[in-house]
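Repro:
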Amino acid sequence: MTTKTLLDMVNVTAGYGQTPVLFDVNMSVNQGEIVCLLGRNGVGKTTLLRSIIGLNPLTKGSISFDETDISKVPTFKRARKGIAYIPQGREIIPYLSVLDNLKMGFSASGKKGNRIPSEIFDFFPMLKEHLNRQGGLLSGGQQQQLAIARGVMCNPKIMLLDEPTEGIQPSIVQEIEETLKRINQEKGITIIVVEQKIEFARKLAQKFFIMEKGAIVQKGTTEQLTDDLLHRYLAV
């Protein structure tokens, strides 16, 4: 079985205005992989995800997705091509119900629809019990599950998750890990996750990339993610 490259970043330089944050980033992700992006705070991990979805324009380099150059494609069209972005802090709409938050997934994907697929409640049974509740009244862990579910609603080819376990209790972290694995295996969705919890990353991902000063400095399989590498690039 041949492996298909789904996302390919070549010499990507990007940032905010005239201030570059990423420098000549080269990163390739295959279809069906779960990849973890590691590094200390402020090294450019969030900017890399934002560049993939189009929120940070490139000043150099290119991004190909599903064999198409998307370097100059606007964000909403990237979403419709199959890129779902779940930002840090979740960004659900607090005054909307859980149901209406989920339905926003339809508009992001550009597909018309009103009925939530049953698989969403199979992945996230908790949401079914809270459909009419305001999103802002959910716990942090429940809000994170809602944000991921909204991403799955877009029926994406790839999901970009920025620190999905931040501030969440350990039992929910384990649930999120198991659910992401199921989404990956059952729907074939490729996942890139920015993460600080190393054990979560090791259990979830098959591959890792480590960033330092806006560049990819190490990569490999999670079996190759040694304590020495962690100490060198992640110890504070």
